[in-house]
Specification:
The structure is a single chain. By secondary structure, the chain is mostly helical. It is built from 6 helices and 2 strands; from the N terminus they run H-H-H-H-H-E-E-H. A two-stranded antiparallel sheet has the order 1-2. A hairpin with a 4-residue loop joins strand 1 and strand 2. The protein is elongated, with a radius of gyration of 20 Å.
Amino acid sequence: MTRYNPINYDFHRMVIFTILAGTVVAIVGISITLLAQYQLMGNLIFSQLPSNLGNYIRSPLAYIFNMGLILTGICMLLAMYGLQQLHLNQFSHTIALVGSAVGISIILMGIYPINYLFEHRLFSTTFLISTLSLYCISLLGHINHKNICPTPLMIVSLLGVCCASVLAFMLNWDSLSFDPCPHGEQVPCVLTYLLWCQIHLVTIWCIILALSIKKLARKSYYDSISAKLAVTW
């Protein structure tokens, strides 16, 4: 049976495993930083922007948080590369292109944390715009391309559109930053919750896409075997 294996099957299994493993490492890294700051600040951590966890001056574990962002971005790029290599249709290429922009912006946010104020604001805004675009494309894809955008991905995309749209409305487009919460830093801020939701939704979206790629790769594998066996018989 070995001679019937499509050469992309093992490749996609490797990509999927790397995505899932890298995502777990990224989540653990970000969680460690969050818990460390929570022990120092308590619930007031939720009045701080997530980007402050990457501040090398204010956060002792900033390097772990920033590395988590970089790993998340790399996982996103791997997911997009795996989708691109399936050669499904033009729609999958569009998702791969926009998703790559999301992955690159996440990596650059990790490389340029809040200490590099201008660069971080620029890449954070790029991340917001590209994720909003990705979610919208995914919702459109659910109509005619359910194999690429199954129902779980559609649900996450819908939540992502809501979250990203509110953040885009709250963003000060002149300075590419968010205005401080009116009640100060002593009360948990809605903006902070929305930003954390955005980070987690992107991670969940990437995991669901990886599982979808696995399903498509397996289907391609069995279709190829069936076609070759049919020719042989």
